[in-house]
Amino acid sequence: MLNIEQINQFYGESHTLWDLDLQVVEGKCTCLMGRNGVGKTTLLQCVMGLLPIRSGEILFEGQSLNRQIAERRAPLGIGYVPQGRQIFPTLTVEENLRIGLPARREKSQQIPEFIFELFPVLKEMLGRRGGDLSGGQQQQLAIGRALVIDPKLLILDEPTEGIQPNIVQEIGDIILRLNRDIGLTVLLVEQKLPFARKVADHFCILDRGRNVSAGAMGDLGDDLIKQYLTV
Ligand SMILES: Nc1ncnc2c1ncn2[C@@H]1O[C@H](COP(=O)(O)OP(=O)(O)OP(=O)(O)O)[C@@H](O)[C@H]1O
């Protein structure tokens, strides 16, 4: 569904992503892993059109995203939950959710009810300002906001970062439900190994901007973990 082919990315003169390939298979959950600073967020931002690539190609459903502006991603069906959530703190929960409505593939003025089935807390807090929510509730809002566009591919950047354990569990269950029951394709960055093992079918490990290993989650063994993931 998403094919990244030989991309190179630079911050100024600093070469950050090197000839990087990644395949995200339709209907599966792929977890991007690696230590801090290896380029995971940079890669997601390239996919979202928020950072330019110098060479290579990013294809979504066979169509090149290289020359498409960032705003085209949502109408094509790519939902994005950025690192740190980036909800609008002074807007209400409802206003945060409504932001995605114009980008829905099937136009609607209504926030889809299934978002409130997944996250009942958002319905209870519709009139609250985003900034007044707890970290876990903000993460649920960020995921809900990405789902408003009715995505085919959901991209999440460290959805469990700084979240209390019971909400981490809930977010894991929701990713599983979206992926396995509803068939949504998922690409996520995740550093917590048990969480990654629970939700993902495939892994891809980055090290210093390169894809150094990829495969089925069941094949992620101790050697790889020791070499590339433990601190
Ligand atoms: N705006 C920027 N300008 C210059 N260098 C940057 C910028 N953002 C990130 N970098 C550098 O690019 C490299 C990759 O960073 P990136 O945030 O993509 O890594 P990451 O794997 O997502 O790390 P983390 O797990 O800490 O979020 C790092 O060396 C980082 O310092």
In short:
The protein is 32% helix and 26% strand. With 231 residues, the chain is an alpha/beta fold.
Describe it:
With about 230 residues, the chain is an alpha/beta fold. The radius of gyration is 17 Å and the shape is globular. It is built from 9 helices and 10 strands. It has a single domain (about 1-230), classed as Rossmann fold. Adenosine-5'-triphosphate (ATP) binds next to β2 and α1. Belongs to the ABC transporter superfamily. Keywords: Amino-acid transport, ATP-binding, Nucleotide-binding, Transport.
Regarding CATH, which class? Alpha Beta
* Number of discrete helical segments: 9
Biggest sheet character: 6 strands, mixed
State the low-pLDDT regions, or none. Answer: none
Q: What is the overall silhouette?
A: globular
List of distinct ligands in this structure? adenosine-5'-triphosphate
SSE string, helices as H and strands as E: EEEHEEHEHHHHEHEHEEH
CATH superfamily: P-loop containing nucleotide triphosphate hydrolases
Level of helix content?
A: 25-40%
**CATH architecture term:** 3-Layer(aba) Sandwich
Secondary structure: number of strands: 10
CATH topology descriptor: Rossmann fold
SSE topology:
Layout: E1 2-11, E2 14-24, E3 29-33, H1 40-47, E4 55-60, E5 63-64, H2 73-76, E6 78-81, H3 93-98, H4 113-118, H5 120-124, H6 135-147, E7 153-157, H7 165-181, E8 185-189, H8 193-199, E9 202-207, E10 210-216, H9 222-229
Bound molecules: adenosine-5'-triphosphate.
The site of adenosine-5'-triphosphate has 11 residues, from strand 2 and helix 1.
Family: Belongs to the ABC transporter superfamily.
InterPro entries: AAA+_ATPase, ABC_transporter-like_ATP-bd, ABC_transptr_urea_ATP-bd_UrtE, BCAA_Transport_ATP-bd_LivF, P-loop_NTPase
Keywords: Amino-acid transport, ATP-binding, Nucleotide-binding, Transport
